[in-house]
Amino acid sequence: MGLIDIGANLAHDSFDADFEPMLHRAWQAGLEAIVITGSSFDSNARALALARQHPGRLYATAGLHPHHASEWSGELAAQIRELAGHPEVVSLGECGLDYNRNYSPHEEQRRAFEAQLRIAVETGKPLFLHQRDAHADFLAMLREFRPLLGAVVVHCFTDTREAMQDYLALDCHIGITGWVCDERRGKALFEAVPGIPDERLLIETDAPYLLPRNATTQRRGDRRNEPALLPWVVKALAQARGQTEQHVAAISRDNARRFFRLDA
């Protein structure tokens, strides 16, 4: 199928015991590349190390998730700048704002987010963003920096149709996960995704989280999500958008190649 998973947390310790078999399942399921999400000092380094072990198939991002915003420091800023110079690191982030769980105070989240927006401006790297229950502040900050930024994706989008239109108006890409496969909490998203233009659609698993509820191929009793289940996201998107699975696979793959400059 030639799929690209733009966001999988493969530095997570739940993959330590079966990393290579997990990758084999992904390739067998039709994936051609996976971008490993960096979200902390340790996971940034781990994501790069894993990407180097599988050149041309695995790539990495480097950033600080808003949950960890209290850890922002000069050392972390220096690490992200340094990692941005490696060809395997194809994007900055995961960064943004999360007012849902509030693991870090809002002020510290905004400080860390602004610092990473500035690094993205400096480096010209694409930006991999996170927003949950923080649309107004997130949009205001993104709008301020958007003219200076390169490509931007709002990853794991689960917000309203109106929020989606706000991001599309800023020329952002939208990343869709297995949330769209959930007929309960994902119903509004399922109804909204036809509004994403073909050229702005990206797909991801956010593994090990957000196991697609429509998946019938995961191992029995295993609630861990993994990249091999990305085709189930494609299936739900095709149903929602009135397109073929082949079309959704092709446009999202081509968009990912352009977004992350994988053909450069």
UniProtKB/TrEMBL annotation:
Classification via SUPFAM superfamilies: Metallo-dependent hydrolases
InterPro entries from the UniProt entry: DNase_TatD-rel_CS (IPR018228), Metal_Hydrolase (IPR032466), TatD-like (IPR001130)
Sites where the protein binds a divalent metal cation 2: H130, H155
Alphabetical list of PROSITE patterns matching this protein: TATD_3
Keywords, alphabetical: Cytoplasm, Exonuclease, Hydrolase, Magnesium, Metal-binding, Nuclease
Highest taxon above the source species: Bacteria
One matching Pfam family: TatD_DNase
CDD domains referenced in this protein's UniProt entry, alphabetically: TatD_DNAse
Keyword presence, Transcription: no
A GO term, aspect molecular function: exonuclease activity
Binding-site residues, a divalent metal cation 1: E94, D206
This protein's GO CC annotations: cytosol
Family statement: Belongs to the metallo-dependent hydrolases superfamily. TatD-type hydrolase family.
PANTHER family, alphabetized: D-AMINOACYL-TRNA DEACYLASE (PTHR46124)
Protein name stated in the entry: Hydrolase TatD
